[in-house]
Amino acid sequence: xxxxxxxxxxxxxxxxxxxxxxxxxxxxxxxxxxxxxxxxxxxxxxxxxxxxxxxxxxxxxxxxxxxxxxxxxxxxxxxxxxxxxxxxxxxxxxxxxxxxxxxxxxxxxxxxxxxxxxxxxxxxxxxxxxxxxxxxxxxxxxxxxxxxxxxxxxxxxxxxxxxxxxxxxxxxxxxxxxxxxxxxxxxxxxxxxxxxxxxxxxxxxxxxx
Length: 209
What we know:
three-stranded antiparallel beta sheet
């Protein structure tokens, strides 16, 4: 029996190792959803879920650099951050291949600056983490430049010049329009074509019944 009166069975080695009462842990660790979201944001993780069903269940999340994934509150509070960020961090000064001779402008061209990571996060937040074409929320989202990156340096990190696209639609867009001289008119035409196609497919499916 623990100090709070909870009855349970434990192995002697578990007691010696300091494993406490599971019921007590539930009392002290259970937090309301608003508190969980606030504490997660302090750790650089935004929870996209509308509900919280337990500390060990995965929820859709996005990190401060705009990487989407799934994590439990248990793993977040233990400090298990974004895996993609961890990979990217290894490309910084801590990496043996880090090149100190690159200027900030050169790093920006490689899209590896804090400003660029923040831009991606702002774009996805603005778009409610939803693809502007297929309207599916979450998944593998890409922050797409409306006016293309290379030819509009003043707009490279302007959130108004970005939209969220799923990787499939993003790839299809650039197959059609290439990666140079991209415009808002191209994006509008592409979105309209995708919406028309989706509507046609739904109508065909309905006609089968």
